[in-house]
Amino acid sequence: MSIRLKFIYFLFGVISLLSQVILIRRLLSIFYGNELTIGALFAGWMFWTGVGAIAFGRASDRAKNPEQASALIFFLGTFFFLISGLGSWLGRYILGIGPGVMAGLDKILIAGFLFSAPVCIMLGAGFNYLARGVKAEEGFKELGALPKLYLYEALGSCGAGLISLLMVGKISAVGQIFLCGFLMMLCASLALKATRLKIIATTASLLLFGLLMVFSGRVEDFLARVRWQGQELILETESKYSTITITKSGEQTNFWLDGFLAFSFPEPEHFEYITHLGLSMVEKPSRVLLIGGGLGGSAEEIFKHPIEKLVYVQIDPMLTELEASYLEGFDLLRQDPRIRIIHQDARIFLKNSEDKFDAIIINLPTPETANLNRYYTKEFYELAKSHLEARGVLSLSIGSCGNYLSDAQASLLANTLSTLRLVFGKVSVLPLEQNYLVASEKSPLITEDPEQILSQLENRGVKTKFVRDYYLKDNLSTERLASVEKRLKGFIKQLTNTDLNPRAYYLSILLWLEQANPSLRNLVKKILNWQKSFFYLAVLGLFLIWLLIIFLKKKTGFALISIFSVGLVGIGAEMVLLLGFQVGYGYVYYLLGILASGFMVGLSLGAYFYEHYKERLSRQAFRSLLLVLLGEASSVFLSWLILKMFLGYFPGEIFTVILFFLVLVLVAFFSGVCFLLSAYTFKKEARAGLGATAGWVNALDHFGSSVGAFLVSVLLIPLFGLGFALGFFALLIIIGIISSLVLVRFKRAG
User: Fold this and answer.
1) N or C, which terminus of the chain has less Cβ within 10 Å?
2) Rounded distance, CA 679 to CA 690, Å?
3) What's this model's pTM, rounded to 2 decimal places?
4) What are the angstrom distances between the C-alpha of 240 and each of 243, 257, 592?
C-alpha cells in the first residue's frame, strides 16, 4: 500500500473525529453545555454515518475508480461541514429558541440530527469508497484494504484528539471549523488521480482556507451578533472550559456560559436572597465560601456581615479576568485582603482543602446539566459538611416557586430536600421567588420564621432593599409554608440524588419538558414512575431478536447483530465514562477530544491485532466472535469498577485522565476486533462485494452506536445512573452470547 493512500486514510480519521468534536463543542455552547447535547449529536452522527454507509454500499462496488469518487465525496463533505459548522451559530434562530430560553429535549435531539446529517452521510459513503482503494491483486485478500483503512482511520482519530486539545482557547471557533475544512479539502485533493490536479487542488485549498482564516474573527463576530439579536453583544470568546458571552440589556451586564445565564450585574434582589437568608442563620459568620455566580454582587452583600475571610471558587480564570474588565469596582474587590479567589473546580478544592467555614453559599443555577448536578448530590453535601464548623450552614436555591408547584417542580424540590436531610439534621425551605434551602447540623438559628430572619439581620445592622418584612412575611406565611410542605409529601419518597445516579438532573429535564408543553404533564408522571423492570423486559426482547436473526440469517445475521451490539455497548460505555469524568472534575469540554481519542486508540489496536492473527481468528470466526463479545462484556464490567473507585477516592486529574484513557482503549479494542471479524464473516457468508461489506458492517456499527448514545443520554443515566447503564450494557452482550450458544446447541441437537 502506498504512503499516499495511508496518509489519506490517516487524514480521514483526523477529519472524522475532529469535525465531530468541533460540532459537539458548538452545540454545547448553544444548549448550555448540556450533556444531552453530546448524546444527541453522537446519536445523530452515528445514525447518518450509518445511512451514508449503507446507501452507498453497492454503488461503491460498481465504481470503476473509487479513489476519484472518494475525492468528490470529500469535496462535497467540506462544503456540507462548513454549512453545518457555521450554521450552528444560527441553531437557536432556526429552531425558534430565543437567547436565554431553555431548549427542550426535542429541540436538542433535532439539532443533533440536523447539524450532523450532511457531513456524516458523506463520511459514511467515503468509508466505502476508501475501502476499495487497493485492489485484491496487490496482496490483500478477503477484506482488501478494509483492515488497513480501519487501522489508519483510528490512528488519525487519535491525532485529532491531540489537535483538538491544542486548539481550545488558542484558535477561534470559526478558525477551528476552517482548519477542519482545509483538512477535508486536502484529503480530497490527495485522492485525485492526476498529479497536476493534486497540486492545483492542494494549492487552491491552501489559498482559500488561508484567506478564510485571516477573516475568521470577523466572520465569528458577525455570526455571534446574529445569534444574540435583541441584546447588545459586548464579547464572545472561547476558554478552555466553555464559550463565554457578555451582553448588555439596559444597565445590566450579563455573563453567559455556553449560552446559559451564569449571572448578571447589577442584580441586587438575587444577591440579597442568596447571601442574607443563609448568613442570617449563622450565629457569628466570619469565614464564608462562595461557589460560583459571580463575585461582584455577592461580595457586596456578604460584607454587610462581620466577615473576616471570603473564599470565592470558580474554575475559569478567563471568566474572572472578564469580570474585572467589564464590571465596575471589581478590581477594588480583588485588592480586598479579606477576599481569596481560587480558580479550581469547587469539589476538587474542597477535596484538597483543610479549611473550615461558617457558611458555604452555592450560587449556581438549578441542576439542568449533569455538570451542575454535581453540586446537589449526597456526596457533595457530605463533602461540604466536612468543611463546615459545627454550627455552620450550607445555603442554596433550587428552581422557581409560584403559587402552585407542578409535579416536576415539586419532584425536583422534594428530591433536593430529601437528599439534604440525609446529610444534615436541620433543613429549612424558604419558598420565595426561588426555593431557597438552608441546612445545618447544629445551628440553633435554622428557621422558616420570617420574624427571626429579619431580627438577626436587624441586630447586625444589615441594610437591604428586597429582603424586607412585607415580602418575607407574605411569602413565608404559616399557610404558604404548610401548603408547600403538603405538596412535597407526595414526592418525598424517591431516589436520592448521587454522583452515580444524577436524579435531580433528570427531574430538571422533565421540568423543561413540562414547561415547554403543559399537555405532556401526564407523560411526565409516567416517566417519574418508570422502573428498572422496563429495561429488563427490553433485554428479554433483545434475546428473542438475537435468536430470530441468527435463526433466519445464520452466520451472516450473527455477524451483523454482533457488530450492532458492540457498537451500541462501545459508544454507551464511552459516554458513561465521559460523564463520569465530568462528575469528578466538572468539565469535559477541554479534554473531550483527548478522551475520545482513547477510544480510537483501542480501535486501532483491535485492527492491528486482527491483522496479525487474522488467519487464526478467521479459521473459527464464530467462536472468535463469541470470545470478543465476552471480552467486551468484561471490559464494561471493569469500567464500572474503575468508575466506582474513581468517584469514591477522586485521584489526581492526570492519573484519572490516564486511567479513563486506558479503560476506553480496552473497551474499544474488542470493538475493533469485532468490526473486522464481522466484516470477514459477512463477506464470506453473503458473498458480498467489498463496498457492500464495508457499507453493511459500518452501517450496523453506527446504527448500534446511535441507539447506545440515545439510551445513555436520554434514559439510562438520568433515570437510573451511571452504574446501572454500564451493568445494562454488559448484560446486553452476555444475553447475545447466551442466545447464540443456545441456538447452536439447539441446531446440533436437531
Assistant:
1) C
2) 9
3) 0.82
4) 8, 12, 11
Number of helices followed by number of strands (H, E) in the chain: 30, 11
Is the residue at 384 inside a domain?
yes
Angle at 719 between CA 714 and CA 725, to 5 degrees: 80
User: How remote is the C-alpha of 611 from its chain's centroid?
Assistant: 34
Cell numbers for 425: 439534621
Mean pLDDT of 571-587: 79
Does residue 268 have a cis bond before it (omega within 30 degrees)?
no
Which residues make beta-bridge pairs with 76? none
Residue type, 468: R
- Bridge partners (DSSP) listed for residue 257: 244, 260
What is the extent of the structural domain holding 280? 260-516
CB within 8 Å of 749: residues ≥ 6 apart: none
Calpha distance 658→164 (Å, rounded) = 17
Q: Is 302 inside any structural domain?
A: yes
Given this model, what pLDDT does residue 391 score? Answer: 94
Q: Does the pLDDT of residue 14 top 80, yes or no?
A: yes
Query: Which pLDDT value is given to residue 750?
Result: 46
Q: Based on the structure, what is the number of domains in the chain?
A: 1
CB-CB contact of 24 with 98 (8 Å) = no
Distance of CA 728 to the CA centre of its chain: 20
Given a contact cutoff of 8 angstroms between Cβ atoms, the answer to whether 654 and 591 are in contact is no
Those residues with Cβ within 8 angstroms of residue 714's Cβ, 6 or more apart along the chain or in another chain:
36, 39, 105, 109
Closest C-alpha to 347, from 391, 314, 304, 308: 314
The secondary structure element, H or E, covering residue 715 is none
Residues 6+ apart with CB under 8 A from 460: 304, 305, 306
CATH of the domain at 477: 3.40.50.150
Whether 352 is in a domain gets the answer: yes
> Given this model, what pLDDT does residue 359 score?
95
Give the residue from 569, 548, 427 showing the smallest Cα distance to 492.
427
- Tens digit of each residue's pLDDT (9 = 90 or more) over 489-523: 878 777 789 988 888 888 887 777 676 666 666 66
Kindly state the cell numbers that stand for 719.
433515570
SS3 track for 124-173: HHHHHHHHCCCCHHHCCCCCCCHHHHHHHHHHHHHHHHHHHHHHCCCCCH
pLDDT bracket for residue 362 (50, 70, 90):
very high
- Lowest mean pLDDT across 36-50, 133-147, 262-276: 133-147
Instruction: Copy the grid coordinates of residue 322.
Output: 472578564
In a domain, 568, yes or no: no
